[in-house]
Write a structure and sequence with these properties.
The protein is an alpha/beta fold and 247 residues long. The chain has a single domain, classed as Rossmann fold (3-Layer(aba) Sandwich), CATH 3.40.50. Helices cover 48% and strands 13% of the residues. A six-stranded parallel β-sheet has the order 3-2-1-4-5-6, sandwiched between helices. The structure holds nicotinamide-adenine-dinucleotide.
Length: 247
């Protein structure tokens, strides 16, 4: 069945693979991203593969812009039935060096942006009596991460918020689940390695029983399932895609 899907942070890394996966599943996909050019490039590529896809530039931390963006998706495709939130910023600062500005920016993009995105779709899903919400969180939100006090706090918040949405909206046919990756090969991971903030793969893989860094398609496959009809009875879960790094 073709549904209307929105992916925030859809223009890069995990979001890009999730958009491609949902488009391959036959859904109409809206790529929401602060990088409008990259979002348009992906939407054009997916349309070239026969998908119905639109790009909408938006900063997820901007309440008015989020409402405009989701309205634009409704105008293009109709009520929204699937939401995957992948937009986030990541970085490393020793806890006692995190400035209030930096803290607030992480909260605004990663936590408030996820809140605003979920809030924007719930009325459509309630009216339809069907909905799928998947939040991309992080292993950092499950177990903490060195020099990521701000980031891990936002991701722990995303996990708790997702569980609450699951409890509040289950009776409306809506599921909400969170996928916390550990180390997945994306521009974010490669950037952090290039800056020396994360160790190279040879070291990272020592913490991953599967023996390899994940690929974006590992995460996209699980998102596709969680957004499917078949996943109706999977709700409020934290489903790690991490090669066994967090058990
Ligand atoms: N790659 C990993 O190993 C890893 C590990 C754990 C968690 N994650 C999480 O996975 C998700 C995707 O990360 P990724 O590795 O694909 O990163 P990425 O940097 O490749 O992609 C993130 C996307 O989000 C967009 N974005 C950033 N700020 C935004 C904003 N304010 N509004 C709208 N869009 C915005 C970026 O433009 C980019 O397209 C994130 O939530 C990240 O925290 C990734």
């Amino acid at each position: 069945m073709s549904r209307v899907a929105v992916v925030t942070g859809g223009a890069s890394g995990l979001g890009e693979a999730i958009c491609a996966g949902l488009a391959a599943d036959g859904h109409r996909v809206a790529v929401l991203d602060v990088d409008g050019d990259a979002a348009e490039k992906l939407a054009t590529e997916l349309r070239g593969r026969g998908a119905q896809c639109v790009a909408v530039p938006v900063d997820v931390s901007d309440e008015a812009a989020i409402d405009d963006a989701f309205t634009a998706v409704r105008t293009e495709f109709g009520p929204i039935e699937i939401l995957v939130t992948s937009a986030a910023i990541g970085g490393f600062t020793r806890f006692d060096k995190i400035t209030l500005d930096e803290w607030n920016r992480y909260l605004a993009v990663n936590l408030t942006g996820t809140f605003l995105s979920i809030r924007a779709v719930l009325s459509d899903m309630v009216a339809a009596g069907w909905g799928r919400v998947v939040t991309i969180s992080s292993a950092a939100g499950q177990q903490g991460a060195p020099r990521q006090g701000h980031y891990s706090a936002t991701k722990g918040g995303v996990i708790a918020m997702t569980k609450t949405v699951a409890r509040d909206y289950a009776r409306h046919g809506i599921t909400a689940n969170s996928v916390p990756p550990f180390a997945i090969e994306t521009p974010m991971l490669r950037r952090q390695q290039a800056e020396g903030k994360l160790p190279p793969d040879e070291y990272l893989t020592q913490a991953i029983p599967a023996g390899r860094v994940g690929g974006p398609e590992d995460v996209a496959a699980v998102c596709s399932f969680l957004c499917s009809e078949a996943a109706e009875y999977v709700n409020g879960q934290v489903i790690g895609v991490n090669g066994g790094a967090v058990v």
